[in-house]
Every structure is written in C-alpha cells, then in structure tokens.
Design brief:
- The chain is of the alpha/beta class.
- The chain has a domain at 7-36 and 112-240: ComB-like (putative 2-phosphosulfolactate phosphatase, Alpha-Beta Complex), CATH 3.90.1560.
- It has ten helices and ten strands.
- The strands form two sheets. Strands 1-8-2-7-9-10 form a six-stranded mixed β-sheet, sandwiched between helices.
- Strand 4 and strand 5 (81-82) form a beta hairpin.
- Helix 5 crosses helix 6 (163-178).
- The longest helix has 16 residues, at 163-178.
- The protein is globular.
- The two termini are 32 Å apart.
- The model has no long low-confidence stretch (mean pLDDT 94).
Length: 253
C-alpha cells in the first residue's frame, strides 16, 4: 500500500487487518486489555526481568528446555484457560512480586502474543493498556512530534475487534485530539469509531464499558469479575514495556 494509505497515526482493530510490511518504520503499541497486555505490564512492574512472547505452545516448551528452570516461569492460555503443563495462566493477579520477582517469563496467549509476532519489523514495539495509559500516551505523542508514524494495534479476539482494546485506542486518540495534535487527520473509519466509543465514556472509569464486552463476560464466567477490574485500573503500573530482539523488557527511556 502507498504511504498515503498509512497515515501518521493509524489504528488496527484486529490482527486479521495486518498487511505485509504495513508496520515497517512505525512505532507500534500492541493492545490486549484482556489480558496479555495487562499481565505483561503487571509482571514487569512487579520485578520480572524479561518476557519471551511466543505464538505457539510447543515453542514455549522448546524454549524452556534450554533455560534454568529455577529462573523461568511459563504463562499461557487458550480461550481463557491455562495451558496444561504451564506454571500459570494469563492473569495479572498471578503476577505478584513474590511470584515473578527476578524471573524470566515465557508467555503464549490466544490473541496478544500473536499480535506481538505480527508486529516484528516495526521500528519500536510497546505493550499498552489501561494500567500504563499515561506512559503510552506520552510516548505516542512524543513520537508523533518527532515525525515517527504510530500504529495502535488492537489484538482483538480471534481475528475480530474487541470492545476493550478499541476503547483504549480511542482514549489515546481522543486525548491527542483534545491536545490539538495534527497527526490525527485524516482519521480512518476505525479511528472515528474508536473515538466515538471513548467519548461515550466521558468522565467514567473504563471498567463500566469494558464489563459490557463479550470478552469480559466470557472471562468473568471463567475467573470472575475481579480480573476484569484489575485490567481496567488506570495508571496502576506506570511503566513502558518495549519488545527488543524478541523479548519484552522495561524501557530505559
């Protein structure tokens, strides 16, 4: 696609929308609110040293065989359920300092790690969510002022858009719009939809809208609503996870 078709700031609503080479040279924010982003942000905030995201279960098992088992944990789920043989599922509630402090994590999830895999080739890859909203907003705004194009990449659910991911992207777009950032124009249909969703939120906490989503209701049936509420905690972990050479660590910016 031509450069005109990829504006300075774009939003992708699901992994199925990605085209080859689309993210090259761009800062990409991977968004998987429920729950990969939230788990990764929490784990690194609570002392995990790095995260190895992998797309497939067998990749995780092969990788862990070559590591010091005392220093590594496996985290993974498929369709919200912990993978057999893994240490933990995909839950920020599991990532306490006592559990993840000083550990390396190998992680595979239904949607989030797939989006990270698809993002390889981007100039910079960040992990974003409500937990680190302000840190992401600051980095995105800084990149745009440096003329670095930005993509907000919503992981979605099995190739379809997810309300919670779209809401987060819309909140970023709306904040930039309110600050008069010129990079938003022209907005795509996806951008308009995301902003409309964020503006519907108003001054309310995002958890109210997120709980109405298909994904949140499905997750609440598996693990309870506490998980959803934790994932929607605004700026609870003001850190900036960045993926470099296939591993995710805290940014040193």
């Amino acid at each position: 696609m031509s450069e005109k078709q990829h504006p300075k700031l774009e939003i992708i609503l699901s992994a199925n929308e990605i085209e080859e080479g689309q993210l090259k040279g761009r800062l990409v924010v991977v968004i998987d609110i429920l729950r990969a982003s939230s788990t990764m942000i929490t784990a690194l905030s609570n002392g995990a040293t790095k995260i190895y995201p992998v797309e497939e279960t067998d990749q995780a098992f092969r990788l862990v065989q070559n590591m010091d088992r005392k220093q590594v944990l496996t985290l993974g789920e498929r369709n919200g359920v912990i993978i057999e043989g893994f240490d933990y599922g995909n839950s920020p509630l599991s990532c306490t300092p006592e559990v993840v402090g000083g550990k390396q994590l190998i992680m595979t999830t239904t949607n989030g790690t797939r989006a990270l895999e698809y993002s390889k080739g981007a100039e910079e890859i960040l992990v974003g969510g409500f937990l680190n909203y302000s840190a992401i907003l600051e980095r995105v705004e800084g990149a745009l002022y440096q003329s670095i194009p930005v993509t907000l990449f919503c992981a979605g659910w099995r190739g379809c858009p997810a309300l919670e991911d779209t809401l987060f992207a819309g909140m970023i777009l709306n904040a930039l719009l309110e600050r008069g950032n010129p990079s938003l124009q022209p907005l795509s249909d996806a951008g308009h939809m995301a902003i409309c969703l964020a503006q519907r939120l108003g001054e309310e906490a995002p958890v109210g809208i997120v709980k109405q989503s298909d994904h949140a209701r499905r997750l609440a049936g598996l693990v309870g609503e506490d998980e959803v509420e934790v994932c929607c905690s605004m700026d609870a972990c003001p850190v900036l996870p960045v993926m470099l050479d296939g591993t995710i660590e805290l940014s040193k910016r």
